[in-house]
């Protein structure tokens, strides 16, 4: 709960900061002799200040996500599942040597192969799914 509370506090502080910036934008327009909001007031001012290089992702960089590597899967009836024991072998729907799927919060983002680095397992990405394909999988 601590992380969620901290994120809420940060979100509230950012909201207050943006509202204060909006008020300053409106006051600047009044002193310039302009009536009512102008396109550069409030949201317009924030849009103007954004760089064209891409969206500002600093607010989402600390949000935790779940990274999962999927080796394969298998469908089986509950009868067979209950008969599994130590040493049993379950056949998966993938061939040996096929790349693993890399999922973030359940969405496929890449494929890769298992590597060993100082007695720990890792994954070397061999293919990254394009942004268009990721968006398509969300639909």
TrEMBL record:
Its main location: membrane. This is Flagellar motor switch protein FliN. It is a peripheral membrane protein. FliN is one of three proteins (FliG, FliN, FliM) that form the rotor-mounted switch complex (C ring), located at the base of the basal body. This complex interacts with the CheY and CheZ chemotaxis proteins, in addition to contacting components of the motor that determine the direction of flagellar rotation. Belongs to the FliN/MopA/SpaO family. The keyword Membrane applies. It is found in: Cell membrane; Bacterial flagellum basal body. InterPro entries: FliN, FliN-like_C, FliN/MopA/SpaO, FliN_T3SS_HrcQb, SpoA-like_sf. Residues 59-129 form the Flagellar motor switch protein FliN-like C-terminal domain. Keywords: Bacterial flagellum, Cell membrane, Cell projection, Chemotaxis, Cilium, Flagellar rotation, Flagellum, Membrane. The keyword ATP-binding does not apply. It comes from Zhongshania arctica. Residues 25-54 are annotated as: Disordered. It holds the Pfam family FliMN_C.
């Amino acid at each position: 709960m601590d992380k969620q509370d901290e994120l809420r506090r940060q979100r509230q502080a950012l909201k207050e900061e943006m509202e204060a910036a909006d008020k300053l934008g409106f006051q600047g327009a009044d002193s310039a002799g302009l009536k009512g909001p102008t396109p550069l007031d409030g949201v317009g001012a924030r849009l103007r200040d954004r760089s064209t290089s891409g969206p500002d992702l600093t607010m989402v960089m600390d949000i935790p996500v779940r990274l999962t590597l999927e080796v394969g899967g298998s469908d089986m009836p509950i009868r067979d599942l209950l008969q599994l024991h130590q040493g049993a072998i379950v056949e998966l729907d993938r061939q040996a040597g096929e790349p693993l799927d890399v999922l973030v919060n359940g969405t496929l983002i890449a494929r890769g192969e298992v590597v060993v680095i100082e007695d720990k397992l890792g994954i070397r990405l061999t293919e990254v799914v394009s942004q268009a394909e990721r968006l398509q999988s969300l639909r």
